[in-house]
Write a structure and sequence with these properties.
443 residues; alpha/beta; Immunoglobulin-like; Rossmann fold; 2 domains; 9-stranded mixed sheet; 8-stranded mixed sheet; Acyl-CoA_thioEstase_long-chain; fatty acyl-CoA hydrolase activity
Length: 443
């Protein structure tokens, strides 16, 4: 879906002067595709600032910027040249995207998330004279280009699901199919989160973004195994899906759901599973009320830092030894990929993953487990180039209280974790879902 174009806007001090030219290719692409930025027609060894600006769907402005010095030919090539300062440093081709942060004076505790996947994320990239750190809106740029970043590739169908009590959105790749499929679940924040499922469909998988924890007072069954088994069945029996090639992917609390299905369900038997930033505690063999009561009892272990940010990782420590308090992962019979950040401040994912490894080792199924563990990465490991958010506003499920939740992670290592893990997640899914698939069913 890439469209290549050079766009430049510039001013010259005389009719004979050559205006700087800012080139960004491709100007339209999926969010996980790299772009190439080149600035030409500068003076040799000229100091410039590359700046990106995004107006979010929540009506907030986010910006990133890097300081560059042109070469002897008056050129800056972002894929080769290092930023000397700004919101990122070093050779970082996508730094203008993953280091986005709210502009000074913004509301507190913001998190950038795409709500409408039918529209692009629009990024305005500009080059300014000198090394600037503020006041970009008050200065004239040397050149500007606009780029669109999409979660949804052309031809992907988007279908609203309201079937047998299941709520969600189904994304179907273009082509005759049938395709392998992924049941995609986010965490304890609840609601319907579509952008990862849309991106998975853009890579050739039918993906269902499942809504749960959204109206728990009226529909408590939404966090019991039966609801997820029904969602799995709705996805599995869709005519565009290969029934024996369905995976389950869960982040945070979605990990407990994923592991519960893989270990215990007789009707939902995934071909492989991916778990991101989660734990094997809180198995779904209890009612929603019982799970929330258990969480409430543990919440007393939570701490707050000097900025009043809630640190939740201690709530599941120490990892219990009682078998009935965690998913029996030794029962899992399909390949399992676990992705964690070692600076996760929300869940004790390092300790939890170590316990999962030990349990699977004792059960003889450790060979099915692959672990990706990233130093200095936090809890919110999302698709590549999603801006890192160390803390943000969050509504707790147990008390419905608004808090500032500390997710953890350092910006650059977290960005690396998102890029590296996404590539390996796609390879993992392709290996286990597309392997030995008849050619007619492949993209």
């Amino acid at each position: 879906m890439s469209v290549f174009a050079d766009v430049s806007l510039g001013r010259s001090t005389s009719s004979m002067a050559v205006c700087p030219v800012l080139s960004l290719q491709p100007t339209r692409a999926l969010v996980d595709e790299k772009f190439q930025i080149v600035v030409r027609n500068l003076h040799p060894k000229q100091e410039v600032t590359l700046h990106s600006l995004h107006h979010s769907e929540d009506n907030d402005y986010w910006e990133a910027f890097g300081h560059y010095i042109s070469d002897a030919d008056g050129t800056v090539t972002v894929m080769e040249d290092a930023s000397r300062g700004g919101t990122y440093v070093g050779v970082e081709p996508m730094g203008l995207l993953w280091s986005l942060q709210p502009v000074p004076g913004s509301r507190h505790g913001l998190r950038l998330r795409k709500k409408d996947v039918l529209s692009p994320m629009v990024l305005i990239v500009s080059v300014f004279k000198g090394h600037m750190t503020q006041g970009f809106s008050e200065k004239d740029s040397l050149a500007t280009v606009v780029t669109e970043r999409w979660y949804l590739a052309p031809g992907v169908q988007c279908v609203d699901i309201r079937e047998q009590g299941v709520k969600g959105t189904l994304f179907i790749p273009p082509g005759p199919g049938p395709f392998p499929a992924v049941l995609d679940m986010w965490g304890g924040g609840g609601g319907l989160v579509e952008y990862r499922a849309a991106l998975l469909a853009s890579h050739g998988f039918v993906a269902m973004a499942l809504e749960y924890l959204s109206a728990v007072e009226q529909q408590p069954s939404e966090v019991q195994t039966g609801y997820f088994e029904m969602a799995y069945k709705v996805l599995q029996t869709h005519p565009q899906v290969c029934a024996d090639r369905v995976a389950v992917l869960g982040l945070s609390f979605g990990t407990a759901v994923t592991l519960t299905l893989a270990a215990y369900s007789k009707t939902a038997q995934p071909r492989c599973c991916v778990c991101i930033s989660g734990t094997h505690l809180y198995p779904l063999n209890k009612s929603h009320t019982e799970i929330l009561q258990q969480m409430s009892r543990n919440i007393a272990k939570a701490r707050v830092d000097e900025n009043n940010h809630v640190i939740g990782k201690d709530t599941i420590m120490p990892i219990p030894t009682e078998p009935d308090r965690k998913v029996d992962v030794g029962r899992i019979k399909c390949p399992l990929l676990i992705v964690i950040g070692q600076d996760d401040q929300n869940w004790a994912v390092v300790e939890s993953t170590e316990d999962i490894e030990q349990m699977m080792e004792r059960a003889g199924n450790r060979h099915l487990l692959t672990v990706l563990s990233y130093p200095d990465a936090g809890h919110l490991i999302e698709p590549p180039y999603t801006p890192h958010v160390r803390f943000s506003n969050f509504i707790t499920q147990h008390s419905r209280e608004k808090v500032l939740m500390l997710w953890g992670g350092q910006m650059k290592p977290h960005a690396h974790a998102q890029e590296d893990s996404w590539e390996k997640i796609l390879l993992f899914l392709q290996k286990h879902l597309y392997q030995d698939l008849p050619p007619a069913a492949k993209l």
